Amino acid sequence: MAFALFGEAYVRSSLLDGSSAARSAANLIASNSLYRIGLATDLLTFVGVAVLVWALFLLLREIDSHLAVLALVFRTIELGVHFSAIAFGMVGMSLLGGGEYTGGLTQSQLHSMVGMVLRGQMAGLGIGFIPLGLGSAVFAFLLFRSGYVPKILAAWGVLASVLLASYSFGVVLSPNTSDYFFAGMLPMFIYEASLGFWLLFYRGAARLQSMA
């Protein structure tokens, strides 16, 4: 989550200007290393997600193997979309680096092309939240049935996951849905942070106590 917040809230929000392709391009040229670090932290985030999804699948497949596989499929699609979105960011940096592919373009045309590529990256990152939310909702439902975590936490996870998927799907239908960013994202942040802390500290402490 720290890697994800760094890439989104710090790197992209400070460098990309949705109203001006020229300013975005100038920022990326001036802060090339920072943007590439942001792409690298995104990749580390997705690798971490892959490990966590694998762990959830192993934990919950005994509760309902069919639903666990369904959740795994949704989350695998999410990772495929998000990894592909990073490729768009790499293409944008490659275009700004010049070369034969951009030799015949004016500066304005180049900036517009880079802006479109980066919009493609942002669209991919947003669309990936749809299978993320669906897969997370199924995993949270299985957690609810399992009794491994408090039922209220698991129920909140189902609600937060559905809200995230609905918000991201709403953005596809209407850009105005982005006005409800926090309503779509904040419940999921609360759920994931709470679940992580509970598993790390409460369950971890209980396991240590049982081993003592």
How far is the N terminus from the C terminus?
A: 32 Å
How large is the radius of gyration? Answer: 20 Å
Strand portion? under 5%
Total strands: the figure is 0
Query: What structural category arises from helix and sheet content?
Result: mainly alpha
**What low-confidence regions span 5 or more consecutive residues with pLDDT below 50?**
none
Q: What value does the average pLDDT take? A: 88
Largest sheet: none
Instruction: Determine the number of helices (DSSP H or I, runs of at least 4 residues).
Output: 8
Range of helix content: over 70%
Which outline best applies? elongated
SSE sequence, one letter per element: HHHHHHHH
Key terms for this structure?
212 residues; single chain; 8 helices; mainly alpha; elongated; 84% helix
Descriptive notes:
The protein has 212 residues and is mainly α. 84% of the residues lie in helices and 0% in strands. The protein has helices spanning 2-15, 21-30, 32-60, 65-96, 107-127, 129-146, 151-173, 181-211. The radius of gyration is 20 Å and the shape is elongated.
